Amino acid sequence: MQIKTSAKEYDAVIVGSGAGGGMTANILAKAGLNIAIIEAGPFFDPADPKQKTQLRWPWESPRRGAGTLRPFGDFHAGYGGWTVDGEPYATVGDTKFSWWRTRVLGGRTNHWGRISLRFGPDDFHRKDIDGLGENWPIRYEDIKPYYDKLDKMVGVFGTNEGLPNDPDGYFLPPPKPRLHELLAVKGATKSGVPMIPGRLSMVTKRINKDRGVCFYCGQCSRACAVYADFSAGTCLIFPAMKDGKEGRGGQVDLYVNSMAREVITDDTGKATAVSYISKDDRREYQLKGKVIVLAASACETARILMNSKAPGQTNGLGNGSGTLGRYLHDSTGAGTSAFIPSLMDRERYNEDGVGGMHVYAPWWGNNRKLDFPRGYHLEVWGGMGMPSYGFGGGHKAIQKMLGYKPGGYGNPLMKEVKSYYGAVVGFSGRGEAVARYDSYCEIDPGKYDQWGIPTLRFHYKWSDYERKQAKHMQETIRDILVNMGGKLFDEEIPSYENDHGLLPPGAIIHEVGTARMHDDPKQGVTNRHSALHEVPNVYLTDASVFTSQADKNPTWTIMALAMRAADHIISERKKMNI
Amino acid sequence: MDRRTTLKNLLAGAAGAALISQTTGCEQPPVEPGVAEPEAKGYGLRMPHEIKHDERIANDSFFTDAEKKDIGILADIIAPGTAEEPKATDCGIVAFFEFMALDLPDTYQGPIRGGLGWLNSEASNRFDGRDFAGLTPEERIEIVEDIAWPEKAQGTHFEVGANFFDRFRFLTLTGYFTSKEGFKTVGYQGNAPNVWDGVPQEVLDKHGLAYDPKYLPLYVDQTKRDIQAEWDDEMNLIS
Q: Rounded CA gap, B189 and B157, in Å?
């Protein structure tokens, strides 16, 4: 059977509709380019009453929101998980890497925590500072104008603090902290850890006509029906489609339920199309484009390139350096929680707030004086959240802390459980790992997913840099919780053999680095403009291009780099280079 | 260009799906929901494998009538209700157990069926051959007392029963407090559009906490939430 090729040639074909793909599409369409977006999952609009999970009650789910089918619960707007039906992957040796995939329009931006942190000046040249890893080919000054634009375009709340490596921005006003967050700030201050208002991309003040203002339901992970939280579908792709329709921009065609397979090249090695498998009829199609943009997520983008062929290029497209798939790294993560007796029998009032923390601690330490090279930030959680599956689960540990006999039944137990409500607080550390050549993904020979596309296998190791950092997280978090008057659920810090409680790689869903940018084509896959060194009309606008992660969440940098790459595409077109 | 031509030209349309297009200068944009696109099932978009999973549960059953009766009795011992509050069986607890046993079979089927068996055997041995449902309320409590306190039961004949009771108690509490009827007793006030303007003053006072005066002018001024955000060149919000 013949592969069906479109007659139409798009100015750009973009794979992926998340932060990177959505932003690239938005900027290119604004400049008048006609765009095709290929998305592996279904169409999704959280404003559609049929698709909406926001403001639903726990009993509307027969499993009361349990994570049987979705790792973060039944109402979560991330369709996917660490396992996806019919789309396997493997790990090699003692690798514990798990690979998150979101298959839906807007990708992971429908359900992320909206923590939107700029990388700081140091984050672009860590090698200069500690001799480890590699410097980025660009510096903060190169990306700052895009962060500035991004703040105003998408909206992020926060405060200007003048911190050296956590830059100021064009912030919307932050919401006031909740009760447990005020306690957290007090406890952290005692521990010498400064906490500041959170930096999250929810619209706390009107930013444009198309988006509503946050109404504080705390459910951003379910995606917002008034588009008050940022997601790529609602805030980048829908406006671009509307502009195109009304003649203010290029046309944007959306191909959903379409699983990208490979980039097609001509005899000269120039990319000409993307092939995909339609999930509806399982047949292969090709979409022609003058420019090809991959923004399918770090590992999926690497996989598409590894599955692509071009004359003279073996081992995948644009992989002359041999670094495609290499330097894969996720953020580090560890944390613990405590029961706060002073929060027992709390006054009941609505403290849902935004769907995330109202305060956090950017990295405060000095790694020159510590036994690990890279920093981390602290996130805090707790409060009187909506009861869902799992509610009432921790009562025995709390009874023990209070000197009661653990267990029980009847109204005394019911009363106790209610008195503990809203009295548990936890912290999570999220830090930077050092990128390693030996942590990588590659094609798993002879293995295919249900669409007939060769699958990945992973090799990943933490080093003592990360383990020692996790130990520091564990110590710091315990110290803060105790200073809050808390009683720890786990007093003991997990041992070195247990990685000091460091979560396995992939757990934080911040994987980056598989096609890192580098000025030297022998040492990186992409150039400083996010294009393949070897195929200049292929751009990568997801986190695959990160030379290194920071102690920040990657989304804001993915989008700033996507804007910058889109600008480069527009200028190269003008120069007739692509 | 009409919609049909657009789809034909793009060929993906021949598959009848997968394309949501808007076409400059043409009439209404074609919106073709994919055939693989799942239907709503009452609690938001469900994916095909999720719909299949729920359909399997809807057409299946696990607990026998006798087991369901025991579940109701035991759950009402855990959550007996008060004059103002419902008891577990007023909150659909039996149906919830049945659903969860089919939703998470490894977690609940064996342990709960086995535990109910243990309970009935214990009842029979202790009270001249009667099953748990056949006991008086006082007799039932006598057994529950022996299995409701895991530390006491540890290392004794009752340890098996205590392990079962632990899981049963968890599912009862979770089912109770997340049901429409039992949920109210927690006092959760949210899940409704509102304007958050900080912790009530009396609560701050009670906990000896206060907002940092340095940040008070920077927090969102909810009276100006609907005014378009504007900044000066120094990154200061000015609207």
A: 44
Q: Which residue of B has its CA nearest to A414?
A: B79
Identity of the amino acid at A275: S
Exposure letters A374-384 (e unless 16+ CB within 10 A, then b): bbbbbbbbbbb
How many other CB atoms sit within 10 Å of the CB of residue A172? 28
Q: Do B22 and A280 touch (CB under 8 A)?
A: no
Nearest to A253 among B21, B39, B220 (CB): B21
Q: CA B120, CA B141: separation in Å to the nearest integer?
A: 13
E strand or H helix at B173, and its extent? helix B159-177
∠ Cα B208 B211 B215 (to 5°): 160
Residue of A nearest to B101 (CA): A63
Predicted pLDDT at B46: 86
Q: Does pLDDT of B13 surpass 90?
A: no
For the cut 90, the answer to whether the pLDDT of residue B39 exceeds it is no
DSSP class of residue A237?
Answer: I
SS3 A398: helix
Burial (CB count <10 Å: 0-12, 13-18, 19+), residue B36: middle
- The alpha carbons of chain B give a radius of gyration, in whole angstroms, of 29
Long-range contacts of A361-370 (CB under 8 A, 24+ apart): A361/A188, A361/A193, A361/A194, A361/A195, A361/A196, A362/A117, A362/A163, A362/A165, A362/A166, A362/A196, A362/A551, A363/A165, A363/A166, A363/A431, A363/A551, A364/A192, A364/A193, A364/A194, A365/A472, A367/A130, A370/A468, A370/A472
Looking at residue B27, its pLDDT comes to 35
A17-31 pLDDT, tens digit each: 999 999 999 999 999
Report the half-sphere exposure of A418 (CA within 13 A, side-chain side).
20
Residue A426 in 3-state DSSP? Answer: strand
CB contact under 8 A, B148 and A59: no
Scanning every residue of chain A, which has its alpha carbon at the shortest distance from the alpha carbon of B218?
A173
pLDDT tens for each residue of A407-451? 999 999 999 999 999 999 999 999 999 999 999 999 999 999 999
pLDDT in tens, A342-400: 999 999 999 999 999 999 999 999 999 999 999 999 999 999 999 999 999 999 999 99
Residue of B45, B148, B219 lying closest to A408 (CB–CB): B148
What is residue A2's predicted lDDT score, i.e. its pLDDT? 67
* Tokens, residue A206: 């009107």
Strand runs labelled E in A29-122 = 35-38, 80-81, 90-91, 101-102
Q: What is the ipTM of this complex?
A: 0.95
Confidence class of residue B3 from pLDDT cuts 50, 70 and 90?
Answer: very low
Which of A205, A283, A417 is facing B173, going by the closest CB pair? A417
Give the one of B16, B174, B197 whose C-beta lies nearest to A389's C-beta: B174
Q: What separation in angstroms does the CA of B84 have from each of A392, B80, B181? A: 20, 11, 11
- B187 vs A contacts (CB less than 8 Å): 348, 418, 421
CB contact under 8 A, A64 and B148: no
B174 contact residues in A (CB cutoff 8 A): 64, 389-393
Per DSSP, the three-state class of B146 is helix
* Across A354-358, B45-49, B184-188, least confident range: B45-49
Q: How far is CA A496 from the centre of its chain?
A: 28
Predicted structure pTM score: 0.93
> What's the whole-number average pLDDT of chain A?
97
What pLDDT band is residue B12 in, cutting at 50, 70 and 90? very low
Q: Across the interface, do A217 and B206 touch by the CB < 8 Å criterion?
A: no
Q: Are A312 and A331 in contact (CB under 8 A)?
A: no
Chain A CB within 8 Å of residue B1 CB = no
Q: Taking CB atoms and an 8 Å limit, are B229 and A155 in contact across chains?
A: yes
